[in-house]
Amino acid sequence: MSDSAEPLGGVHVKYLLHCPRQLWLYMRGYRPEGGSDLVAFGEIVDETTFTRRRDIDLGEARIDWVTTGAIVHETKSSRAPSPAHEAQVRHYCLLLERRGVGVRGGIVHYPLIRRTVTVDWDDDARARALATETEAREVIATPVVPPRLERRRCRGCSYTDYCWG
């Protein structure tokens, strides 16, 4: 990443992997998330679970918490683990590593289903995080909006009205 490149946070990674169109619109100021019941529900789950932890604000990203030994923790309100969630944790590991933190990995917590997913941090994970970051920058830089997904994949997305309205 060059110093002049705009920083990318976890939301950029999540949107890229959910729908490149969503990332593209988000970067151009279209942000309907504020009126989304699903987003509000996720914020409530985040605020009411693991209440003794502290967010880590990196500027471009907010990590739910980091435990001793540099393990990144992310809480999701989803009832189904997703590769996008793991990609977010890998991105946070990359951001911390760039700041000189000796990251060891991460854990995605799903309190609604009482499940966790371990995210490794090794050379392969680093390469995947860098590739995701490159892909996000390519989507952001493209001059035309990416195509919309099949409608069934848009269920619950706060951008549905824009894409399908």
Report the sheet with the most strands, covering strand number, pairing sense and barrel closure. Answer: 4 strands, mixed
Helix content range? 40-55%
Termini separation: 37 Å
Number of helices: 6
Which fold name fills CATH's third level, the topology?
Lambda Exonuclease, Chain A
Instruction: Name the beta content range.
Output: 5-15%
Structural class: alpha+beta
Average pLDDT over all residues: 87
The CATH class designation is Alpha Beta
Overall number of strands: 6
Strand order of the largest sheet: 3-4-5-6
Could you describe the 3D structure shown?
The chain is α+β, with helices and mostly antiparallel strands. The chain has a single domain (10-164), classed as Lambda Exonuclease, Chain A, CATH 3.90.320.10. Helix content is 42%, strand content 15%. The chain is built from 6 helices and 6 strands. The protein has helices at 10-18, 20-27, 37-48, 83-98, 123-141, 160-164; strands at residues 56-57, 62-63, 65-67, 71-75, 105-110, 115-120. The strands form 2 sheets. A 4-stranded mixed sheet has the order 3-4-5-6, with helices on one face. It has a two-stranded antiparallel ribbon with strand order 1-2. Strand 3 and strand 4 form a beta hairpin. Helix 1 crosses helix 2. The chain is globular and about 45 Å long. 30% of the residues are buried.
